[in-house]
Write a structure and sequence with these properties.
This protein is an all-alpha fold and 162 residues long. 72% of the residues lie in helices and 0% in strands.
């Protein structure tokens, strides 16, 4: 009997631990890792800055956009490097990165440009070309396009009449 008294109290905690591990799993192994942010999936600031650089270069030579004199005038005033910096910060912030965009709101930055639907579509087409060039996966492209589309009401202020 003396052996039984020693065995039972020692075995119960062990069996409890085994049952918890079998049914509940080890928390760190049983739980999925948290999903990475879009920022992390895109490769962080350096990858985003590379994509933004290509995208802005496309916009600067886009004939549809350059046909709008207000866009051309704004481009002549804003240094290319500054624009790339601000867009990079904005993309980083909205995708979950630590960078903070300090520029004007989309509405304030674009309301005087009289951007039409055709100009908006030209910009989106250039954005897609850049994303394709860098092999951004379809899921991430979809998330980025959704973010861009969410800004449309603040940017497109014209149905095409100038």
């Amino acid at each position: 009997m003396h052996i039984e008294r020693l065995f039972v109290p020692t075995v119960r905690p062990f069996l409890t631990l085994v049952l918890v591990l079998l049914w509940g799993g080890i928390p760190t192994l049983a739980q999925e890792k948290p999903k990475q942010s879009l920022y992390e999936r895109l490769g962080g600031v350096y990858s985003i800055a590379t994509v933004v650089d290509d995208f802005i270069e496309r916009l600067l030579v886009n004939d549809v956009l350059n046909a709008n004199p207000k866009i051309k005038e704004a481009r002549d005033r804003v240094p290319k490097a500054g624009l790339k910096f601000q867009v990079t910060a904005l993309v980083c912030e909205v995708t979950g990165g630590p960078q903070k965009y300090t520029g004007r709101s989309m509405k304030m930055a674009h309301q005087h440009l009289n951007i039409s639907e055709a100009e908006w579509q030209a910009m989106v087409a250039d954005f897609r070309k850049t994303l394709d060039k860098f092999g951004v996966p379809g899921g991430e492209q979809g998330e980025l396009i959704a973010i861009v589309e969410s800004t449309k009401p603040d940017i497109v202020v014209s149905s095409g009449t100038k």
